[in-house]
Here is the input.
Amino acid sequence: MSIQGGQNPASEALAPPFAEAEALGSAETPTQQLWRTFRKDRLAMLGLYVLLALLVVALVGHVLTSFWPIFDPVTVRLPDKLRPPLSPASSSLAKDLLPPFHSYPFGTDEFGRNVLARMLQGSFISLSVGIVAVSISLAIGLSVGGLAGFYGQRRLGPISIDTLLMRFTDVVLCFPTFFLILTVVALLPPSIYNIMIVIGMTSWMSTARFVRAEFLALREQDFVTAAKALGLPEWRIIFRHMIPNALAPVLVSATINVAHAILTESALSFLGFGVRPPYATWGNILADGRSYIFDAPWLFLIPGAAILIVVLAFNLVGEGLRDALNPKLRKRSG
Amino acid sequence: MADESRELLSIRDLHVDFATDSGSVSAVRGIDLGIAAGETVALVGESGSGKSVTAMSIMRLSEGRVAAGSIHFQGRDLLNVPAAELRQIRGGQIGMIFQEPMTSLNPVFTIGRQLEEVLTLHQRLNARAARAQALELLQRVGIPAPERRIAQYPHELSGGMKQRVMLAMAIACRPRLLIADEPTTALDVTIQAQIMALLRSLQQEFGMAVLLITHDLGVVAHFAERVLVMYAGKIVEQGSVRDVFKRASHPYTQALLAALPDPLKPSARLSAIPGRVPSPSMLPPGCAFCARCAHAFAPCAERQPPLFAIGPGHGAACFLKEQ
Here is the structure.
């Protein structure tokens, strides 16, 4: 800008370098910039497509399995037990028991239940566990990290708020999380909501640390001082100005945490501590299939593959986001 | 005291301490400063002289602890107002702009949203009225095509533009006092002149008082009415711009003025002040400038010189002026 000899304000805007920058930049918001970089990562895009497909499958599956009787995942068809995938339904079945299109695309289990219907029900449960648990963990992590980062210097008696909150985080981090969840779930009545809450309450620590680290840096930034000088209340500075600036690493870890939550729920269901048996989740389909590994391998292969694909997709999207949010990589990729 | 009641801002004997690992350190050591409505006062000094700490203390934004003294704004004790009232004064009655326009705007929101936030907060405008007023403000601070700029993010604006936006936010609620903490330090000279001209026209239009913090004596000479020269947390000389520039009385002020390069003598060696500013943790018992002063004599090392009056409104804290 130093070569511009502007005497009036308008000449600054008319100078060539500025006009050029404006033509390039005015249309692109930070979100668009993120999307442009993200789109170049093919694996991440693949993950994103898988997740979008999963979302559709889970929603459609939830509607189908809840409201369409012939798709009911708990319907027992003993004559058709342990049918391999793609096999047709036997003609001896009563009419109202026949599966859609008279076939079992994913086969049947030891009670002749339609594995496709059970997988659909399970996908909705897996996804909702992942999303709800991560929402809970985000709420706790953002609050703890934000408070520790913003009010850290204040003291409550002999220790600072920062010490109090972060040492508490360290303590929770020291628990062997899975066994803690097992214990809590064993004590509570078996319910999918309890599982969501317990997973959420044991997975917020990394978020809290990220947010605290970001807040420590942001607190010293001029725009935070400027916001204070403009008389904005502290809660507004924290939630409207600092959290959006601290969100990038949190978003990445949240995406990967969804994968963790899905895995944890599957493991709990596999061990029999999850959702009660008539309801299907990928974990308990896998558990049921365990006894028929050699006779009916599809019973563990299908839910196993589903878990693998979904967890992988979440991780790929998370890593794609991390790269897209990294300004150094963004510059390199254009 | 009769004079004090007319003052918009009055700082009396302000001491600001910072806690460090090696104990408490004084950054500001007894400053008296009064600003009348509509007046422009410049606070000049090197880095570390305590001028920014003083400015931040007025807004209660300083990390330091006010150890002694008082700050009154329109009769209210700023150091003791409740938090809600303080928020209303900040941005509402005292505006502030900063040294670094590049980082003083929130990078994730459009400048329009940031302007509108201030307007809705302090003036309780609805969204449409805030939008209209934001456009008007952007226009007023000389931003071309404001209806397009209002939807842009800070990174799409140049430094000068950003400082204009900061100014628009600071004056959005027509404050009585504007604190400008080195507003042009980060800008290049041509933009600097534009911003200072804008500041002056806004000041005249709104009748604001301006406290200008700077180390640029050229800006002071053009812009301010009164100057206070700070050195190591104390005011060493104060007076009208004419008095301080024409009849500089403190050796430090004289040395500062002598250090300005003279464009008519390009080959002359630049003069510098020998030595360095004493660290605030190891201040001498006497005058803080003593060790670097060519005129130092017996009492300088032992006692701190009070501000001696030289003329009407002109004073210097130097024993040479003791009569």
User: Anything to note?
Assistant: DSSP finds eleven helices and twelve strands in chain B. The CA atoms of residues 2 and 96 of chain B lie 28 Å apart.
